[in-house]
Amino acid sequence: MLLTLSLRDFVIVESLNLDVQSGFTVLTGETGAGKSILIDALQLILGARGDAGVVREGAERTQIVAEFTLAERTKAWLKANELDAGEDTLLIRRTVDVKGRSRAWVNGIAVTAAQLRELGETLVDVHGQHAHQSLLKSSYQLKLLDDFAENGDVLKKVREAFEAWTKARKTLEEATANADALAEKTERLQWMIEDLESLNPKKNEWETLNQEHSRLAHGVAIREGLDSALETLHDGEVNATELLASVHGKLMGLARYDERLSAIAETLSTGMDLVEEAAQDVMRYVDRNDLDEDHFEKVDRRVSAYYELSRKFRCEPETLFERLENARSELKNLTSSKDVKALERAEKKALETYHARAAELTKRREDAGKRLANAVTEEMQTLAMKGARMETALIPNQPSANGSEHCEFLIAGHAGVQTRSLQKVASGGELARISLAIAVITAKITPVPTLIFDEVDSGIGGATAEVVGRLLRQLGSDRQVLCVTHLPQVAACGHHHWRVEKTQRDGKTQSNLRVLSPDDRVEEVARMLAGISITDSTKSVAREMLAQPTV
What is the reported pLDDT for 353? Predict the structure, then answer.
């Protein structure tokens, strides 16, 4: 549930801080006052696209901060995305600057707009003022039905099966339609593999081979240098080992007269050991390494073979091993793809899997369609559509990622007539009422704790408007409902009432929101009833409307 909402420099709002309560809250105000700005702010903080146009003129950036209580779905999402701060509430902040750059944080951690949209789906459900126009689209009707039936998991399996079948069918078509091209490609791969296997490159061999080649190419210089080093260190008539031993002996003799010379002699002794160790290492290197010409020629020929094939295939020598592995893998795939019968069996099996999952989806849609139609028909009776009824029809389609049918809502405007397609029989007012009935029905089953209705009551009035208000108040009995409305009958049903006002200050237009007291509500409902001229009689009617027993 939404607890607090703070806006700063948003469109024409300079600063606004709201404490939001549970139950049914109505937002009213004169036309153009900015009633939908609050809804726009909530949608922005929940992942809607933001641009520089939302920044109030003269400001550097807009900032929106909202605090929510945590439902179980929200807790699960936060944990899965490593955003659980261990608190009882959730804090979301979003900014947009004058250059259109947007940033968002959840519990103080930066997130993307896509993450905000996913999170928002667990927090708020918005029913827009143009929902009845979308209702005419078959795709939207099918989505409503799937949402009502909670078909998300089944629909995901259908889409996965459709993707697998599409891929299997494409592979089969390519195998049968491009036989000549596949044969040519197979021959080219075989020729490439034959050439590469003549070299038989090993993984990481090129680097080792280069090092060995460099060592052997400079074998004479290395041997001469090592002989000279050994001569100086150990084997020469005058060598470092003997010279150091002589100095060490002298220092030890002198230490009898000055003990401080013992430390120097000890240091020199360590140096003698190191020189001796270095000499031994040189001798071991000479004994263990092959620096002969035959070995060099063998390595040189392999390096040349690498260079020759790399020029032939126009690649770097170090990539020849990977190229051979890729060619073998591709040839294996091509060889298996030539087995048309195996591909036909795979395609058939994939299609059978799709049909099985699609059939399950269809059954769920049929069952849910009856329940949805009955529920909407019942609501229509309370919305000045006595005798009207709704049916859902599933029209078979070619297989698709959304199943094997599309949906069509059928309506009978009154008793005794056949149902026909919604777009053919419903007037504007009827369409608005049907849309509202569907919104109420689907809202009753949604797990989202906050519901927002943005002028969904347009196109209705009179007694029907009062019924709508009662429906929304009923929804507000077990969750949070916010509704932007222009109807006094709906406004009178709210548990709480906010008024949006537009003012002029320093030549600039600003929008503010005021929480209405009981007396203020009388004035506002009277204004909605009478317009400019508010009389005592109008106020009396407003008091009666507000005093009417509701839910």
Answer: 96
Per-residue pLDDT, averaged over 386-399, amounts to: 91
Task: Label residue 221 exposed, middle or buried (CB < 10 Å: 0-12, 13-18, 19+).
Answer: exposed
**CA separation for the pair 104, 47 (Å, rounded):** 9
29-44 pLDDT, tens digit each: 887 667 778 888 888 9
* Mean predicted lDDT score pLDDT of the chain: 84
How do residues 488-502 score in pLDDT, each as one tens digit? Answer: 999 999 999 999 888
State which amino acid sits at residue 47. Answer: G
Please tell me what DSSP assigns to residue 6. E
* Three-point CA angle 381, 382, 385, nearest 5°: 45
Q: Is 475 exposed, middle or buried (0-12, 13-18, 19+ CB in 10 A)?
A: buried
The answer to whether 363 touches 158, Cβ cutoff 8 Å, is no
Please, where are the H alpha helices in 178-259?
Answer: 179-199, 205-217, 219-230, 240-254
Can you read off the two tokens belonging to residue 351? 């299609």
In terms of pLDDT, which residue wins out, 521 or 232?
521
Supply the pTM of this predicted model: 0.59
Q: Which residues pair with 111 in a beta bridge?
A: 104
Q: Are 512 and 16 in contact (CB under 8 A)?
A: yes
Say if residues 52 and 100 touch (Cβ distance below 8 Å).
Answer: yes
| Strand duo 403-412 + 389-400: pairing | antiparallel
- Asked if the model's pLDDT at residue 433 lies above 80, the reply is no
Higher pLDDT, 180 or 176: 176
Does residue 346 contact residue 168 with C-beta atoms inside 8 Å?
Answer: yes
Q: Is 290 left (phi over 0), alpha (psi -120 to 50) or beta?
A: beta
Tokens of 135: 């209702």
DSSP output for 381-436: HHTT-TT-EEEEEEEEEEEETTEEEEEEEEEESSTTS--EEHHHH--HHHHHHHHH
